[in-house]
Amino acid sequence: MIQTKHIHRSHRHMSLNYAHSARQRIYGYVVVPMLLLAAVAWVITRFGNQTLPQWPHLTWGILIGAIFVTFTRLLIAYAFALVLAIPLALLINHSPRAEKILLPLFDVVQSVPVLAFFPVVILFFVHFNQLNGAGIFILLITMMWSIVFSVVGGLQVIPSDIKAAAKIFGLRRWQYIDKVLLPAVVPYIITGSLLAWAGGWNIIIVSEVLHTYIPGADASSDLFGIGSILVQSSAAGHQHDFFMALIVLIVFVAIMNIFIWQKLLRYAERFKFE
User: Fold this and answer.
1) CATH number, domain at 103?
2) Cβ atoms of residues 85 and 147 within 8 Å
3) Is the residue at 208 inside a domain?
């Protein structure tokens, strides 16, 4: 009895501070995803099928549309990366055999330059006339591994007292995942996501400028987005347009860092063990 009380006190002391209220859960699980999906649908409908503008008719409106199209591709790739990375990390943490096989495999795949995959990826998606899919897929490959390795690291540092308390209180497997594992790795998901988005922004030019990877193609095969505008304006010698596009990119990334990632990093502090 004394030991149980001691573990119970320890569990409370090292508990995770995350929101339980219905309003916060509805907001986080329903309202935000619906708003994001609505924004994605609007961007794709409004700008997704546009071709690159003819110089010198580049305007701030076109650039804002381009940055949101690029953001949409990154958002879709990130969503797929998150959906794939978290179950893979949980599998590696749960199964020693999976850890023995998958971790070295993922380490090798991550170490191979992403551009090595691109020609094969392009040819596959060109065959099905899905160039947008090629850009999103290469972003997915770039973004996924940061989340996988970050979450795996987070799962490995959960205190043994928390695991023992979960067994004593009789948490079933899915309850254990929902109440212990997922909240525990929230800081690592956010950190991994931040790194994933940084990698995505770094590779965005490659994922939108496709004509260099398609035999016999020209710039008309490039995807409309801020990355392709940067490349084509630079290649055409339109430095004014290039700097306009660069300013839009820098401002957008800065806004995301200040109003999204910094807030998420502070929010992640609530999930850390005390």
Assistant:
1) 1.10.3720.10
2) yes
3) yes
Q: Is residue 199 part of a domain?
A: yes
Helix axes 226-235, 239-256, angle to 10 degrees: 160
Number of domains the chain is built from: 1
Query: CA distances (Å), 79 to each of 73, 85, 135, 144, 209, in order?
Result: 10, 10, 14, 10, 22
Q: Does residue 264 belong to any structural domain of this protein?
A: yes
Q: What's the sign of the alpha-carbon dihedral 81, 84, 87, 93?
A: negative
Tokens 């708003």 correspond to: 35
For the record, the structure tokens of 230 come out as 């940067």
Q: How many residues does the chain have?
A: 274
**What is the rounded CA–CA span in Å between residue 114 and residue 106?**
13
Q: Split the chain (274 residues) into runs of 10 and give each run's mean pLDDT.
A: 41 43 50 60 54 64 90 89 90 90 89 80 82 89 93 88 81 80 87 94 89 76 89 88 94 92 86 70
What are phi and psi for residue 201, nearest 5 degrees? -65, -35
Residue 11 covered by a domain: no
Q: State which residues form the domain around 114.
A: 71-271
Position 48, amino acid: G
